[in-house]
């Protein structure tokens, strides 16, 4: 991560660009962890407080809530890495977007043409950043892959059990715990949605790199630069 930040800071076209993206990373990470941890935990505490009269449900939910807390703590580290990779891909794409032979300068929006060797040097630096991001992405997949498989399996089992409870309660117990039975499915579904959506957003941001490179393809550049672009 330090190598990625150092390279991006050295490559940035605008001053304090890295600080700006760091602020965006912190705000995005705060929102993600708030939704992923606080909302499900609050929902589970509400369920437990309302079903203490039903001993079976109470014991089951009290046991599951500790598993969910441990799962969310472990997944928080995964989400931290995902948000970081996504944020750095956003900065990489921003730098690619401004790396064109035509550059807007100053308040008057005057234009100048960047030299091909300058563009080539920036492409080399940004390619190095992308290589670092690919290595980090591979390390995250290797470290958290089996963990996520276990999480999804446990979420599926938990959701299936809760779904059966909903059916049994609503059809055979006169809907005594109707609200609580539906609340049981919120936590696993929300956790699964957050994991899936954050991973998908990260993948989409990585794929946007190829889109921004089309800005460079529209200009006459040295062959070695075009070959380097194709390696992205």
Report on this model:
It comes from Anopheles darlingi. The chain crosses the membrane at residues 65-82, 144-167, 179-196. One of its GO terms (cellular component) is plasma membrane. It is found in: Cell membrane. Keywords: Cell membrane, Membrane, Transmembrane, Transmembrane helix. There is one protein chain. With 232 residues, the chain is mainly alpha-helical. The chain has one domain (1-103, 124-231). It is 82% helix and 3% strand. The chain contains 7 helices and 2 strands. The chain has helices at 2-11, 17-50, 55-98, 116-172, 178-183, 186-217, 223-230, and strands at residues 102-105, 110-113. Strands 1-2 form a two-stranded antiparallel ribbon. A hairpin with a 4-residue loop joins strand 1 (102-105) and strand 2 (110-113). Helix 3 (55-98) runs parallel beside helix 6 and helix 4 runs antiparallel to helix 6 (186-217). The longest helix is centred in the middle third of the chain and has 57 residues, at 116-172. The protein is elongated. The model is unreliable at 103-110 (pLDDT under 50).
Give the topology, please.
Blueprint: H1 2-11, H2 17-50, H3 55-98, E1 102-105, E2 110-113, H4 116-172, H5 178-183, H6 186-217, H7 223-230
Antiparallel strand pairs: 1-2
GO biological process, one term: sensory perception of taste
GO cellular component, one term: plasma membrane
Main location: membrane
């Amino acid at each position: 991560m330090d190598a990625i930040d150092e390279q991006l800071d050295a490559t940035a076209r605008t001053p304090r660009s890295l600080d700006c993206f760091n602020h965006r990373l912190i705000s995005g990470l705060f929102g993600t962890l708030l939704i992923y941890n606080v909302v499900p935990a609050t929902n589970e505490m509400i369920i437990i407080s309302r079903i203490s009269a039903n001993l079976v449900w109470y014991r089951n939910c009290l046991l599951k809530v500790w598993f969910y807390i441990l799962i969310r703590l472990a997944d928080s580290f995964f989400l931290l890495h995902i948000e970081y990779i996504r944020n750095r891909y956003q900065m990489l794409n921003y730098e690619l977007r401004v790396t064109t032979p035509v550059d807007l300068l100053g308040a008057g929006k005057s234009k100048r043409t960047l030299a091909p060797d300058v563009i080539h040097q920036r492409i080399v630096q940004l390619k190095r950043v992308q290589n670092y991001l690919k290595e980090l992405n591979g390390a995250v997949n290797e470290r958290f892959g089996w963990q996520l498989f276990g999480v999804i399996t446990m979420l599926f089992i938990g959701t299936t059990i809760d779904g059966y409870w909903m059916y049994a309660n609503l059809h055979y117990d006169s809907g005594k715990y109707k609200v609580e039975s539906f609340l049981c499915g919120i936590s696993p579904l929300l956790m699964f949605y957050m994991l899936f959506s954050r991973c998908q957003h990260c993948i989409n941001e990585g794929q946007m790199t190829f889109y921004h490179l089309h800005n460079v393809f529209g200009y006459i550049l040295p062959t070695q630069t075009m070959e380097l672009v194709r390696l992205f």
